[in-house]
Amino acid sequence: MSCVSYSKLTPSTQIINQNKDFTIEGKFKIKINSIQETGYFILKKQNNLINLTLGKNYLLPEKELNFQYQDLIFLSELINPEKQGFSYEIFPQRLEVGQLISIILGKKDINRIDSWFIDYPEGSQKITGFEVPTKTRLVNGDSSIEFILKKITLI
Predict the structure, then answer these.
(1) Domains along the chain?
(2) What is the CB neighbour count within 10 angstroms for residue 107?
(3) What is the enclosing helix (H) or strand (E) of 67?
């Protein structure tokens, strides 16, 4: 039996630096009018490039999107394109990829995008050693887009 200080036994909590390369894995839930979509996402940031992988479940094909950090992202990409009679203008239209990452990671200086309010219903918790919100919701009336973080890894 050996003696180890307590601080070495408990992992330290880190705040993720967006200048570093990382991967965020999680799920998304969308509820807009009668449409409800769920799925998973893997967001990989390397240098100024963002690779976003979207899937509905692990048995169906994934969709891969590539962006620069300051490019606009259209959250309508999360909705199945076969949905008929749906207006995609309801989604936030002026959302940069970097802003979305900041929102998901809990940067509280952004509290609204277009008419969508940003909410962190469960506050911040430790996920794989990083202090981040487990849930991030964008809310507009009865409509909501929710991101649930599962894992963060530095590359």
Answers:
(1) 18-154 (2.50.20.10)
(2) 14
(3) strand 63-68
Q: CA 60, CA 95: separation in Å to the nearest integer?
A: 27
CA angle 129, 21, 125 (to 5 degrees): 25
Structure tokens of 9? 């036994």
Question: Tokens standing for 116?
Answer: 């969508």
What's the pLDDT at 45? 94
Q: Output the CA torsion sign for 38, 124, 95, 139.
A: positive
Low-confidence ranges of the chain (pLDDT < 50): 1, 5-12
Q: How far is 23 from 40, CA to CA, in rounded Å?
A: 13
Q: What rounded mean pLDDT belongs to the chain?
A: 83
Q: How far apart (Å, rounded) are the C-alpha atoms in residues 91 and 62?
A: 22
